[in-house]
Design a protein that fits this description.
Elements (H helix, E strand, L loop, with lengths): L1 H19 L2 H4 L2 H10 L1 H23 L4
Length: about 70
């Protein structure tokens, strides 16, 4: 159960930070490298997909669907 909550919070953090784009997150060297490689829009979509998948997995584990 603790794992599910952690995954859920990681997904929420990723999604919120992608939408708000705070400097500590969006200007991270790895984020900047990805943004240079594929562009801001695709990087944002990529991070949103990761965040939404983590939220889904966290909920699924909490509901014992997985």
């Amino acid at each position: 159960m603790a794992t599910a909550v952690v995954i859920l919070f990681i997904g929420l953090f990723t999604t919120i930070c992608t939408l708000l784009k705070p400097d500590f997150y969006w200007e991270n060297r790895k984020a900047v490298a990805l943004r240079k490689l594929v562009g801001d829009r695709i990087a944002a979509i990529f991070y949103l997909i990761i965040g939404i998948l983590c939220i889904g997995f966290g909920i699924a584990i909490l509901l014992e669907l997985l």
